Amino acid sequence: MKPEMGQLYGGRYRLETRIAVGGMGEVWQAQDERIMRKVAIKILKEEYLGDPGFIARFRSEAKSAALVEHEGIANVYDYGEDTGSAYLVMELVPGQALSRILEREKKLDQEKVLDIMAQTSRALAAAHQRGLVHRDIKPGNLLITPEGQVKITDFGIARVGDQVPLTKTGQVMGTVQYLAPEQATGKTSTYATDLYSLGIVAYEALTGKRPFTGETQMAIAMAQINETPPALPEEIDPRVQSLVMNCLAKKPNQRPESANSLAIRSEGLLREKRRTSTGTGPSTDPLDEIEEKTIAMQLADTAPIPKAPVVWPWLAFIGLMVVSVSVVLAAIFSEPREIIEPEPEPEPAPVEQVDPEPEPEVVVPDTVVIRYEDVEGRSIAEVTSYLNNLGFSVNAVAGQVLDGEDSRVRTVYSATPLGNIPVGEEITVSYYVGDYSDETNEIQEPVEPLPDEENPDEPTDGEPQPGDVGNEDINDAPAADESTN
Question: Which of these is catalytic: 32, 115, 136, 476?
Answer without folding.
Answer: 136
